[in-house]
Amino acid sequence: MAAAKIVSLLMPISALGIYLHAVFVSITLGFPFVIGALMYMWWRTRDEDYYVAARTATGVLAVNFALGAITGTLVEFGLVQAWPGSIYAIATVAFVPLAAELTAFVGEIVFLIAFIVTLRRVSPLTSIGLLGGYFVFAALSGALITMFNSWINVPWGTGALASVLYPYLPEYGPAAFETSVLVQVKLALVNSLLTSETSSQILQDPQVAQSIGISLRDPFVALSSPYAQVSVLHNVTAAVIVGVSIAVAALAYRHLRTGEARYVKLLRPILPIILVLLIVQPTVFGDSMGKAVAAYMPTKFAMMEGALQTLQNPLLAFLAYGDATKPIPGFDSFRQACEAHGETTVRSLASAVVTGYTPGPSGDIKLRDLCLRDVSAAQSRVALVNSLYYTKIAWGVVALVSALALVSSVFNLGPISRIVNALTGRLSRRRLLFLLTLLILLGSILPASLGWYVREVGRKPWTVYGLLYPEELVTPTPVPATTMALFTAVFVAMAAGGLYGMYLVATRPLEFVRLLRRGAGLEE
Description:
The chain is built from 23 helices and no strands. Helix content is about 75%, strand content about 0%.
């Protein structure tokens, strides 16, 4: 009972920390596009409004970067401390991506500082180049984290191992792991089902690691996964869209409050960026992401489409497989595949793979039962994942339509602009612009948030295919609920204070400087 309480509290707290960190990551990736567009217009026109707006956005980005670093550190420490069972993945397949991510983080710092201290001291094009260097390292950092996360969704390099345990799965690339070692890891975890030990305790035991041996032959395997590569393009673009939409909504809000035409002028160079991103994301990156899910994660694809039974859907099949006649596998087909194991036990499979295998307490467990248990775990989430997935799609459409309407309102596009103005004739221009940017903001944040939730709830194979489960990775140490509530309150207060700081920088930069001087004891 105590372990269940810990899981029930740590999982939402961890999710909250990740989502708060994601806000700052989105600004980190999106604001370089905004600042770059404003700097470019300043270079072309020498209009000081563009420079002042770029400088203000740079101040927001600087505060945001500090908050992103702080919250990111807390999230990464939490990964090891709250989920110690994840140490197996961190010490093997995640070693290269996470080590490289630290290098990318240093690159972010160097280029951001160089951009800030040389602003207006070098040419605008040089500043844009430095900002571009910062974005490259920031995107690389996000890409490397995404690649590790992608591996725990699709364990590239495990070859046919997953399909041996779960016959409805494809092979995951050429084998980069020692199959016998992975099987022994799985056996140790299955044994925990019948003992008082948790999986996190087993995975941290040095004697277990020594007896099992080294499992990974290729430390770069997470970087070569086709699923990871598609995920990087999709996830980084989603973060950029959120960051840019925050800036667009902020400018429209200032226009709503003040009525000053300069805020519409500042919107003009940014709107084409958000429109192009909102077009490319679903049609190119989203399409590739859907195809990758259908190919490598059949149970998640069935969850997304609500396929309790195998179904025929020519349009969906064409989009997912390029073949309109191919059926969409449902959970009935997954169960049939599990039944094909017959009476095969863990003992018989392990004996054929692991030399000198000594049966543990799990030896008599049937592979069919393990397979069906994991299919049932996925099936129990079908309604939730299906509804959230299509809510995500709907809000993405809202964002795209709103961006088209906003561009038509700001730029003179002839008949298209007249149609938009006729449909929104009762709204003042200021209210219309703010409403459209607000819909874009909601239509970027909600799809990104729901998409990540669907990705994690539907995560395979570690939560459904049976290698590792969240409840097995969590620390067995009982943590009082009051202590976790205190930690969470501090984390949320830190994030809220940071967001308020960014608001002050954007609206009252001199007030922000005064608060900093007071905090440093330089002002009474």
